[in-house]
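ok, trying the design again with the full structure, not the truncated one.
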């Protein structure tokens, strides 16, 4: 038993001796790993610093290269422009100078023309258009709308609403009453008239007579040359303007067909081919016939007895009457009897011829 105790005591002693040795070894290993890690961290920091320095260097190199490339491009461009200028300059200098002279002369002409237009151009007074009273007449309404459009062009008026307001200022009588009613409808919102086309459509709907062209065609068909040819031409022109879609040939045919035979023959003899020429020739015929009818007729014996002769014959007759009768009235009575006597003789001769059966 003593021996076993001794062995246990020796083992315990060995175990105690062995513990410090193991602990020492573990501490040595930890210290070594710590040193390795520290060395690695130091090396890694150095590598990172080196990489940062390298990156900065690369950036500087890139910036330098970009700047160098830009400078090189500018130098190449300058060189190219210099070469082109040196090649073209001897030829283009004279052309440039001539072109500059032309531009300056054109500019001077434009300035002078503007000055002349500003100082010398007279101011054109635009006449006011005629008013429209609301008469149901196609010609008057068409003329009113046409004059208003020409007035808008003269004053350079382009706004549609302003055109409508301006046109309503030239309405009178029934047309004014009509517009007052339409304006009340506009304020209530029941209708809209804010453009020139809408205004023309509404005013024609109210005042433009229906079947104007149809009625004008009927009147033109019934028109005949019965009185003065000038009146015929005037009436034909009025009816013709109310028929917008009638052909020129048809108008010419109607104009000549409704003339009297002598006028139609004269127009055909002159070979008229259009309506304007036919109207002009017809009016000249009127003037010619009137000129013939206004020529003085040669005085006859009866006219001389009535006092249509010259003063000498009248004086001679009055003298004869005064010598044959007691007063001038008797002389005039004798003159009248002288005028009436041949007619009475003719009547008696005809009566006697009828009574006796002589030829």
């Amino acid at each position: 038993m003593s021996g076993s105790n001794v062995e246990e005591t020796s083992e315990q002693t060995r175990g105690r001796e062995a513990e410090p040795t193991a602990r020492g070894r573990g501490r040595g290993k930890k210290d070594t790993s710590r040193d390795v890690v520290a060395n690695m961290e130091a090396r890694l920091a150095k590598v990172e610093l080196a990489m940062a320095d390298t990156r900065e260097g690369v950036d500087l190199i890139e910036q330098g290269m970009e700047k160098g490339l830009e400078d090189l491009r500018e130098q190449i461009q300058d060189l190219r422009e210099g070469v082109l200028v040196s090649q073209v300059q001897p030829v283009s200098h004279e052309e440039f100078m001539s072109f500059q002279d032309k531009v300056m002369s054109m500019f001077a002409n434009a300035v002078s023309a503007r000055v002349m237009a500003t100082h010398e151009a007279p101011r054109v007074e635009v006449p006011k258009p005629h008013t429209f009273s609301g008469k149901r007449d196609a010609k008057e309404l068409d003329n009113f709308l046409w004059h208003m459009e020409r007035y808008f062009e003269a004053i350079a008026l382009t706004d549609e609403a302003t055109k409508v307001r301006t046109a309503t200022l030239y309405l009178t009588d029934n047309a004014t009453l009509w517009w007052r009613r339409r304006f009340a409808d506009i304020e209530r919102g029941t209708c809209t008239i804010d453009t020139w086309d809408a205004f023309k459509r509404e005013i024609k709907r109210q005042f433009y007579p229906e079947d104007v062209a149809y009625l004008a065609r009927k009147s033109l068909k019934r028109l005949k040359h019965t009185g003065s040819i000038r009146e015929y031409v005037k009436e034909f022109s009025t009816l013709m303007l109310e028929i917008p879609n009638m052909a020129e040939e048809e108008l010419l045919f109607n104009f000549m067909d409704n003339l009297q035979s002598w006028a139609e023959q004269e127009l055909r003899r002159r070979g008229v081919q259009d309506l304007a020429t036919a109207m002009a020739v017809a009016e000249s015929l009127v003037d010619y016939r009137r000129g013939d009818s206004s020529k003085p007729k040669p005085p006859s014996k009866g006219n001389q007895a009535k006092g249509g002769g010259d003063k000498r014959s009248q004086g001679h007759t009055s003298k004869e009457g005064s010598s044959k009768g007691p007063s001038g009235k008797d002389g005039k009575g004798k003159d009248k009897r002288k005028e009436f006597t041949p007619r009475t003789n003719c009547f008696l001769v005809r009566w006697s011829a009828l009574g006796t059966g002589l030829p």
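Keeping the full-length input from now on. Residues 59 and 65 are 10 Å apart (CA to CA).
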